[in-house]
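Example (one chain per record):
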Amino acid sequence: MRVAIDAMGGDRAPTATVEGAVLATGENIASRLVLVGDKEALEAELKKHSDSSGIEIVHASQTVEMHESPAESLRKKRDSSIVRAVKLLKEGEVDAVISAGNTGAFVAAATLYARTLEGVHRPGIAAPLPNPSGGRSLLIDVGANIYCKPLHLVHYGIMAASYARHVFGISEPKVGLLNIGEETEKGNVLVKETNALFAKTNLNFVGNVEGQDVYRGVADVFVAEGFVGNTILKVSEGLGEMLLSFLKHWFTDAGAMEDKAVRGALGALFSMVDYAEYGGAPLLGISGLCIICHGRSDAKAILNAVRVATRYTSEGVHDEIATLISSFDGESSAKATGKEIPRV
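Predicted structure:
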């Protein structure tokens, strides 16, 4: 397993990215681990650790900041750590790229340089979410593509189901299509066309699902266009932070934090909603694995991202996705559903 890390990406980079890489080498997760970024800065960080052997550095003279336009960054910063890392993937030097940096720039670089799998028109970001059973579900797409066609959404369902099966260990993932109601006649033209197209797949498609179903375990994979998916993700993050803060203050004021059982229960709850536990969100549909980490990722999040990359590769998810996409005659099926959604 060969992994490249955009060591300059994220609010805590390069300290957190380097520490995460050191933790990963300590567990012998990857056979080759490459930090991409400013060589001088990365060498200084590595010196803080007693054992950083086995970690390589690929110098990149530029860094894409979080506020920068993806298109502008690709044009003006061709030697950025994001671009250099993705080019290692394109050239077959690594099997996966991890970045906690500018998501838009990462998606754009992956699409431009690594390209999409044959048959995949748009890549999608699959964000892991907690579910009532204590496991995980996937929400796809959360921002890579806000102008979708039915075929794009069906591809998301196919790819995310494969990921959930192998990485999360769900034998037959249930796939749901996010809509404003469960009935097939509800929703806009895009959702109606997509529902009909999903019915032509071999997926365990449970039909339309609503927003409240995301945390009820109704499905294992929730499919939505990027605008809707990103909104759900951001609302979930904000609500989760508010509730956890409220609980912490309430138990502290009540003096309950001294109780071992209460601390344990709160710790389990924090762990369930902690993005660092999930190892990032895969950008599915790219010729190679790209994992998008939260901008606030710490060393633990980077370590878990490397773990996920290893699981993905060892389970052969990439090859299965390519096979499933190529075997699904989506173009003919999409035309059979009726009017095709125009690209905006």
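Caption: Confidence is low (pLDDT under 50) at residues 336-344.
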